[in-house]
Amino acid sequence: MSSSRILRCMRMSAIVRDRPINLLDHWTRSNLGSPSLRRWLHGSQIQRHGNVTRPEPGTGIKLHFKDSKGNLLKTVEANEGDDILSLAHEHDIDLEGACEGSVACSTCHVILSPEHYDLLPEPSDDENDMLDMAFGLTDTSRLGCQVHITRELDEMTATLPSATRNMFVDGKKPTHH
Predict the structure, then answer these.
(1) pLDDT by 10-residue block (mean), the chain, 177 residues
(2) One-letter-per-residue 3-state SS of 77-128
């Protein structure tokens, strides 16, 4: 956006403490070229958005996704700190995650292999509350958004349940943002 176009937008009057002021009095043409104002107008750099680097093949932490019948859907390689829900979305695995990881639903419910389940920290109270509403709950059930991958979880299997419970029932598939 050019400086003159920004100036036109800033010529609007504003009301501060019940008296109108002209924004142009506060922002001059010389300020518009300053690096600090450009940083303010553009809050983040492009390279920071969606810049996820995946491990080289054979060097990442392996995670196996299976369907409810035990058939292997896909094996993916993850970085330490990735969560199961994000990995599923990134690799087009049908794990919903309606609340986008805010622990407000149970649609990212997965069933983990018992030997790996014991390596995870205990679920939080919020996660347990949501798991109580999950379809097909087992002793090794967790919410995929709350399971963060570590080196100890290499070769873990996450099995998707046969169904999920969601209030949004019009058949729309979620999209990855």
Answers:
(1) 45 47 49 50 46 77 94 95 93 88 90 95 94 91 94 95 65 54
(2) EECCCCEHHHHHHHCCCCCCCCCCCCCCCCCCEEEECHHHHCCCCCCCHHHH
